[in-house]
Amino acid sequence: QVQLVESGVGLVQPGGSLRLSCETSGFAFHDFAMKWYRQAPGQERELVASIGNSAWDTDYAEFAKGRFAISRDDTSRTAYLLIFSLKVEDTAVYYCSAQDGREYEYWGQGTQVTVSS
């Protein structure tokens, strides 16, 4: 059974930092690219960052460059998203996704991140 479970601190003050985790099971983790998306209230889901099979194969949305860092640990089958200098506009539900670029695409249930003072 495929599972992707996101976790992380839900409420953060502006300017703070946060690490989201995506623990996975049930598929060949190394063969999949891992991606983080987010969806703010009333807005469409948008891609934040992606990481390929290799740790250096990363890509970021323009808004994420410089403040977001994606990484993966194939041993623990976990993907991470570090967010620095959090802004109120980073408030959203964050989702991780595993995609093999061909046929399979798996999603987590999402985790709420609220940036507020």
Question: Could you describe the 3D structure shown?
Answer:
There is one protein chain. By secondary structure, the protein is an all-beta fold. The chain starts with a strand and ends with a strand. Helices cover 0% and strands 50% of the residues. The chain has strands spanning 3-7, 11-12, 18-25, 33-39, 46-51, 58-60, 68-73, 78-83, 92-99, 105-107, 111-115. A hairpin with a 5-residue loop joins strand 9 (92-99) and strand 10 (105-107). The mean pLDDT is 96. Strands 2, 4, 5, 6, 9, 10 and 11 form a 7-stranded mixed sheet that branches. A 4-stranded antiparallel sheet has the order 1-3-8-7, with no helix packed on it. It is globular, with a radius of gyration of 13 Å.
The biggest sheet amounts to: 7 strands, mixed
Poorly predicted regions are none
Shape: globular
What percent of residues adopt helix (DSSP H or I)?
A: under 10%
- List how many beta strands DSSP finds: 11
Rg over C-alpha atoms, rounded to the nearest angstrom:
13 Å
The structural class is mainly beta
What percentage of amino acids are in beta strands? over 45%
Average pLDDT over all residues: 96
User: What is the CA–CA distance across the termini?
Assistant: 39 Å
Tell me the series of helices and strands, N- to C-terminal: EEEEEEEEEEE
Number of helices: 0
